[in-house]
Amino acid sequence: MTSFEDFLGKAPETKTGWTLSTLGFTPYFSNQLDIEDLETLTPYRIFEIQRSIVIGMGENGSRPLRTPHKVPTSNYGVGDWVMADHTDQIVKRLTPKSVLKRRAAGSDVSEQIMATNVDVLFIVSSCNDDFNLARLERFLALAKDAEVIPVILLTKIDLCEDAEQFVDQAKELMGDLEVLGLNAKDPDVVSQLIPWCGKGQTVAMVGSSGVGKTTLLNALAGRDDATKSIREGDSKGRHTTTFRSLHQTVHGAWLVDTPGIRALRLHEKSTGIEQVFDDIVDLAKQCKFNDCKHVSEPKCAVQAAIKKGNLDPLRLERWRKLQTEDNRNSQTIAVSRRRAREFGKMIKSATKEADKLKGRDRDD
């Protein structure tokens, strides 16, 4: 009988794989398994997803895994822990401890898994035209929704005359927020990120294309930087990531690189918005009226803070925009779910009617 100790991989590491503990397998995941799982199934951490392909990494190395019948690869995220049988088919997905997810692009109401089992989110922007407070706030809300630690990395400080102004603006977005200004090509950049890249930790990295995410990834992974120089005219690098994948860093952490994101749509009922804008939420509680719109109502604490110079009116507008989007998301998803239920009932009713007709034909 296999013990949990043996299952966690105490034997020396193989050349093609890692021990489960090195891959980030903790008691949180082992507690979800029973004895039969330990004896008949093999654990893998999902390292890469490309449309119809799922690559898992285990103690015996990497291998493509088959998803169950009619289960799309979009149901899984890079960083997931899954259990596969002897045919390499996924039998069970272990409940992740954190999930970074967003609304799909366009008018689609479905949610898209960006990464799972993440401890820290590196939000990468640059000290040039890419710097955008509204986008940073969205990424911060994403991190808070997933209950992971956000860290803002501002790159290209070597190409900026006054990088501190960007750092200061970012720090004001949320209390106790870590913001680092750095040069992604600096040999010492890895040492700056060590506090969040310890052994067994999982870090996800998000940001627009061309802000230096791949350069940072290569530095953390100990690889040569393949990123080309910045394009003239739009301040962006030439390299872009086209799919999500997991990489080991030189200090034993695991890093999820994601395709460049410019427009982030938050998922239904984002609780992270209130956490990012907790200053406005606290002020709103002091308003005279519970339904205060913070426009021209008497004794509005929010407007009073703006007049005193304690609150930037642009920040209030960004909060309003996110709140409006969040409410619209909930309404849109509610309508979509109601339509799905109605459609399901219609199909069920039609099936019953068809079965009745078949029964009558047999009787005749």
Automatic annotation (TrEMBL):
CDD domains: YjeQ_EngC (cd01854). Keywords: Cytoplasm, GTP-binding, Hydrolase, Metal-binding, Nucleotide-binding, Ribosome biogenesis, RNA-binding, rRNA-binding, Zinc. Binds 1 zinc ion per subunit. Zn(2+) binds at C287, C292, H294, C300. It is found in: Cytoplasm. Its main location: cytoplasm. One of its GO terms (biological process) is ribosomal small subunit biogenesis. SUPFAM superfamilies: P-loop containing nucleoside triphosphate hydrolases. It holds the Pfam family RsgA_GTPase. The keyword GTP-binding applies. GO terms for cellular component: cytoplasm. Its cofactor is Zn(2+). GTP binds at T155, K156, I157, D158, G207, S208, S209, G210, V211, G212, K213, T214, T215. It is an enzyme of class 3 (hydrolase). InterPro entries: G_CP_dom (IPR030378), P-loop_NTPase (IPR027417), Ribosome_biogen_GTPase_RsgA (IPR004881), RsgA_GTPase_dom (IPR010914). Its EC number is 3.6.1.-. Monomer. Associates with 30S ribosomal subunit, binds 16S rRNA. HAMAP family: GTPase_RsgA. One of several proteins that assist in the late maturation steps of the functional core of the 30S ribosomal subunit. Helps release RbfA from mature subunits. May play a role in the assembly of ribosomal proteins into the subunit. Circularly permuted GTPase that catalyzes slow GTP hydrolysis, GTPase activity is stimulated by the 30S ribosomal subunit. This is Small ribosomal subunit biogenesis GTPase RsgA. It comes from Cohaesibacter celericrescens.
